[in-house]
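queue> pop job 88
queue> type: inverse folding (structure -> sequence)
queue> payload:
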C-alpha cells in the first residue's frame, strides 16, 4: 500500500472513532420547584423527598433554600412522587425538566397562584394588574436575570400572566421587602401585564400578598430590558411548569 493510500485509511478510521467522542451529551431531566406555606411565603429549610411511584422507595432528598426552592438533578424518565411534610404530589418525567410547586397550606398541595392571599400582619388581596397586550406579553415572556454588585435577581415572566421574582445578596440588611429593593433576600409572585411596544412601555405587577408596582421599561439590548434602575437579560423561555 502506498503512502497516500495509507494516510487516507488512517483518516477514515479516525473519523469513525471520533464521532461518538464529539457528540453532544444530552442533559438528564430534573425536577425543581417552590415550596411555600402559601403562594407568596417560602417554606425554608424543609425536606423534600423524591420517591419511586411504583415501589414508594425514596430515591433522593433535598432541603429548600432561603427562597423555598428545591431541585432533583439527573432524574431518569418515569413516574415519581414528590413528598414534603404530609403533602405528596405525583409527577411524570419524560425528556425535559419539570417544575412542581407545592403549597403546604393546601389540602392537595397544589399551588394556586390565582388565589388571593392575605399579606403578613395585615390585610388586602392581590389586585388585577390591568389589561395588557397579550401579543406583547408573549414576546416579553422569559426567564430574566440581573447581577448588580453582590445582588442576583431572577424574574420569570410567564406568557399566561403569572410572574415569579427572587433575589439574594451576599450582604445582610435589616429590611424585608419585595425583591426589587435592597434587602438581603426577598421574592414574590403574582400577576403581571405589559402595555406599549417591544422597545418601550409599562410593566405592571400585583402581588399575591397584596399591593403592586408599575414601572416604565425600555429595551437596552437584544433580550435585555431595563426598569426600576435595573437591567434584566433573558436567559431563555419562561420556566412556568
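queue> result:
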Amino acid at each position: 500500500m502506498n503512502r497516500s493510500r495509507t494516510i487516507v485509511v488512517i483518516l477514515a478510521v479516525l473519523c469513525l472513532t471520533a464521532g461518538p467522542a464529539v457528540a453532544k451529551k444530552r442533559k438528564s431531566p430534573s425536577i425543581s420547584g417552590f415550596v411555600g406555606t402559601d403562594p407568596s411565603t417560602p417554606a425554608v429549610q424543609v425536606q423534600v423527598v423524591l420517591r419511586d411511584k411504583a415501589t414508594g422507595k425514596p430515591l433522593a432528598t433535598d432541603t429548600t433554600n432561603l427562597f423555598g426552592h428545591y431541585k432533583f438533578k439527573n432524574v431518569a424518565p418515569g413516574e415519581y412522587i414528590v413528598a414534603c411534610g404530609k403533602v405528596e404530589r405525583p409527577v411524570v418525567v419524560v425528556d425535559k425538566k419539570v417544575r412542581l410547586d407545592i403549597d403546604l397550606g393546601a389540602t392537595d398541595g397544589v399551588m394556586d397562584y390565582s388565589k388571593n392571599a392575605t399579606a403578613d400582619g395585615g390585610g388586602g388581596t392581590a389586585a388585577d394588574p390591568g389589561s395588557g397586550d397579550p401579543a406583547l406579553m408573549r414576546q416579553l415572556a422569559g426567564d430574566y436575570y440581573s447581577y448588580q454588585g453582590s445582588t442576583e435577581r431572577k424574574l420569570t415572566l410567564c406568557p399566561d400572566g403569572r410572574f415569579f421574582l427572587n433575589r439574594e445578596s451576599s450582604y445582610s440588611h435589616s429590611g424585608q421587602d419585595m425583591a426589587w429593593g435592597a434587602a438581603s433576600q426577598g421574592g414574590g409572585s403574582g400577576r403581571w401585564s405589559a402595555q406599549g411596544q417591544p422597545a418601550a412601555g409599562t410593566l405592571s405587577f400585583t402581588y399575591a400578598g397584596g399591593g403592586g408596582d408599575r414601572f416604565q421599561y425600555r429595551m437596552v439590548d437584544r433580550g435585555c430590558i431595563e426598569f426600576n434602575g435595573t437591567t434584566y437579560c433573558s436567559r431563555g423561555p419562561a420556566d412556568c411548569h
